[in-house]
Structure formats: C-alpha cells, structure tokens
Amino acid sequence: MEKARKGIEVSIALAEAAAQADVDVVAAYPITPQTHIVEHLAELVAEGELDAEFVPVDSEHSAMSVCCGSAAVGARTFTSTSSQGLALMSEIFFIAAAMRLPMVMALANRSLSSPLSIWNDHTDTMMVRDAGWIHVFVENGQESYDHTLWAFRVAEDPQVMLPVAVNLDGFILTHMIEPIEYVDNQTVKNFLPEFKMKNALHPDNPVSMGCFGMPEIYTETQMAREEGIKNAYPTILKAWEEWGSLTGRYYHPIETYKTEDADYCIVTMGSYGETAMEVVDALRDEGEKVGVVRIRLWRPFPFDDFRKAVLGKQALIVLDRAISFGGPGGPVASELRSALYGMEGAPSIVNYVAGLAGRDVARDDFRKIILEGKNKAYAHDTDGFTLYGLRG
Amino acid sequence: MLEIRLHGRGGQGAVTSAELIAISAINKGKFAQAFPSFGPERRGAPVVAFCRVDEKKINIRAKVYSPDIVIVLDPGLLELANPTEGIRDGGLLVINSNKAPEEFGDEIPSSIKIATVDANRIALEELGRPIVNTTLIGAFIKANQVITIDDIRAPMLERFGPKLGGRNMKALERAYREVIIQE
Asked: What is the ipTM of this complex?
C-alpha cells in the first residue's frame, strides 16, 4: 500500500528531515528564500523537539565558521543559505571542503546582485562550483526531503568526509506546498549511522587542522582533494541504492526520460526537469522523438554516466539558469561540451539560458526552446548560447 | 487537472486559502500544489496565489496561466489586476461582492461563468473582521466538488485552532450556502 503523503511546504519538510537526522548543530543566518528552513529548525530547538545547538550568528561568514568548528569536533552539522549569504560565507565555504569537514547545506538557489533580486536562478551555486563540495540538485519536494537525509549519509561516510550541498530552486521549490512522504525515525536510524569523525578535535588527542601549506606540499594537498571527491562516487551510489531499497525511491547521477529511442534530448538540472518531462510527453504525442536528460549529481561530475546517457543522440539542447559572462554561455552547457569533446559520434550541443532571477519558464517556453533548439542543432547553429525570452 | 488562481491584497490571506485547498486535497490522497506569486509581500498591494489539484503527480513548475477557477478576494482588483486573464472557456470567476452575477455582465466576457458571494458581510458577522479568504473557500467548494466541506475542516482547525478555526468554518459554510452561481 502506498504510504500517506503529507501536504507541506518544502522548506518545512526539508528542515524536518534535518531534525530527523538528529542534527547536533545548526548555524545559519536568515536570507530569502532559505529563511523558512532555518526558522523552522530554530523553532524545533526552541520548543525542545530537537536536541541541538542552534547558533544564531551575526552573518553567513560566521555561520560557516561555526559549522567548520562543529564538524571538526565531530558534531552532525547543518546550515542553509542563498545568494548573497553564500557569497559572504564563500571564504570559509572553500575551507570546509579543503579541511574535509562533513556537513550538509540546503542551498536555496537564488540570483546574485546586482540588480538586487531575491528570485531563483543558479548564479549563486555556480560561484562555488569549484570549492570542492559535493553538489546534488533536486527537482521537487520529495527529493529535497530525501536528499537532506542522503546528504548526511554521504558527507559523514569515512570514505567521503566532505561537505554536501543540496541545491533546490529558491521559491519554485522552497515555497511550494505539495505532497511529501516522510520516512519514520527508525528507518532514518537504519540508513544514517552515528557520525564518528576520525581525528576529531579533542583536548585529549590534539591534532592540527588547516595548517600553513608551503609550495612543497600545496600541490599534493590539492591532488588529495581531487582524489577525495572522485572517490566519493561509489559511496554516493551506494547511499542512493540503500535509500531506494528502504523507500522505493531510487536516484541516479544522471537520470533519463524517454531517451531510449530519442533522436535528441533536452538536458536540465534542478526543478526544470519535471516541466521538461511534461512537455516531452506532449511533443511525443505529436511525433517528436525527444527525451529528457536530467543532471542530479553536479560534483563530482558523472562523466561516464552522462556520456552513456547521450550516446547515439544527434543533438542536446542544454538549458542553463546562469551565465558565465564573456565565457562559453551557461556553465552546464560548457561542462557538457567539454565532457563530450572528442567522443566519437558525440551529439551537437545547443545552449539556452533561461529562468534568470525567477522569470517563469512555463510549458510553452519549454516547447519553443526544444523545437527551436532542434532546428538550430540540425542547422549546425551551435555556437555560443541563446538568452531565451530576451526583450527588445 | 484543476488550476486555480487567487487574487487578493497582501494580508488578506490568498496564499492561506490556496494552501488550505491543497492540503485538503492531499489529505484525501490527491496531488496538489499551492504557492504564492513569489516576491516581497507588501500589505495592501495586489497579490496572486496559485493552486493545482490532480489525481496524478503534478509535474509543472510554473505559474498558472489558464485557470479553471479564479477567486477574487477584493472586487477592487477586477479593474486593477485583470483577474479574468487566461481563464479557460467555461471557467469560473468567484467574486467577493454583494452584487448578483448578472450585474457583472458588461465587464466580464460571456465565456466565463460568474459566482458572487457577499463574503465581506459574512466574515464581518462570523469573524468580526472583513478577512474573507476562508469564507470564499465555501463558495469555491460549492462550485467545484474537488474537495468537500468535511475535507477542509481538519486543515482549517489545525491552522487556526479550534476556536478561530471553528468560526472560519462557520463563515465558510455560510458562503457555501449563500453563493450565487451563474447558470
């Protein structure tokens, strides 16, 4: 029998997932559209429903500093931010990964100033793409809830020991009330073992963290980071596999929809994915041989899974939510062009950037992007990118 | 799929209405979404909230552009906010007004059915304040059986507590009885 779904705001469900993970420390500063997540955790702590230390810091820079400290002593650590908040904490954000400090962040994606905007796109997360965190993108409320628990499991695994960012589209997901199925606390306990930090900071067993790195050692530390995040991949898969066996909800680094016999595909990351599938259903009825490729795991990037997913396709239409100014267009398309470079029979890539700062991308927009993108691809018009819906 | 758009002013509770409808539908095993028109909320400014209800999982992450039902909390918004925009042919416009539906004949295209209910008066009498968001849900339920009055009782009491929730239910039930729906 199907389990009961609860009608609840995604932010609240995500916060309750962190509470079910029995998080020890939450340090965060409120910023739209992440605010409801942190507010709800503060409420749970204040009402005694969650036995955790809630540290109401003076800024995001302090929030991430507290998180680093708490992870270093082996406390299960959670934070959440968006946009300018992420920018302000970026100095310490990089350090969290470099020092292999496991923690989970709900990153409610939002654009960066200027002009000032509180709405959704992926400019904030792209700013920290290369910081060494594990990045996963979710498409709906259920996935937000599931991946919050999954993220603790991955971050704290002794084979991983890295911070994990759960990227969810601000407002589009954070402020949505929709049906979400919770798992019970015992299932969470079975899935998520107690966090045991090797070499945690402790007065009885002194260790040094975040040391000075001379040129003689810095290069080697960076290679260690590269190896470290790549080696997280099998654990990431294993955690998804186990979550699937417990809940029936299976996740994969790259997910495909109606791609098997597709000539061409639209490629999405984040909440774009669901609308894309809806529109592909309609286009299929009209005879278009189109599918959807959805990127769930952004770092470490699953190159082999992606290549396998698109092998034999003629064209990919890659839909970004950010621009790399003066660069190759959207960061996702840039990544995928690089991933396919030199591959025999690689599909051509057409890049659209849309949905900046909350501009709605509705079904009609997807339809236009897919059909126009297909024509561009078949006409070999694949350079650069198109800023969809640009006025005047 | 049923698509609903609510027009109100910041502070009138349009978002709460959308949420209550969605939660009631989800509680009875349906799929639903409720969400605000995202942005900084300003008391008194025109705001929009959206709701979708379906028997299967909803895969649309965009605003509602072609609603089946539009609920207008403040009749002043008829001129200001263009609430009839995009309503499907045969769709329904629920207006908080003491006028009869026929009296809106000139303003509203004939492809749209109109329902009116004097929610201000009902809310004033039942709640002591002209907060009409929950009252208008009664008119919505009368016009569309996707949820029933019984379905909304638990979410309403959970949201407002037994005392205030009970009064809101009373206002809602009155609107259910008093709404006039154009044939």
From this structure: 0.96
